[in-house]
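hey can u check if this looks right to u? its 127 residues, i copy pasted from the old doc so theres a chance i mangled smth
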Amino acid sequence: EVQLVESGGGLVQPGGSLTLSCAASGFTFSRWAMSWVRQAPGKELEWISYISNGALTTRYADSVKGRFISSRDNTKNTVYLQMNNLEPEDTAVYYCVKPKTFYFPDFPGERSSYDVWGQGTQVTVSS
């Protein structure tokens, strides 16, 4: 069974940090790029990060650039999202997703660009 399972969400104060993990199974993880997307209540899906299969290429949305870092360990079939200097605007459900293509999606903010989704993990930034 193809599966992505996120963990690491929670409540954090503004300026704090969290690291999300996403464990993959059921497919050859090391062949595929991975992304993180998020959705806040009442808002559209927002793409936030991309990491190539070998981790040589990473991309970030402007809203998180300089604060979030994506990494992966292909020996553990796991991708990570380190989130620093968190802001209330970062409050959302975060999803680990597998792109349908081997390269950066043409429309990274579209649900149709991804064919495997995790269950999501809630991140709440509040004092």
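The longest strand covers residues 18-25.
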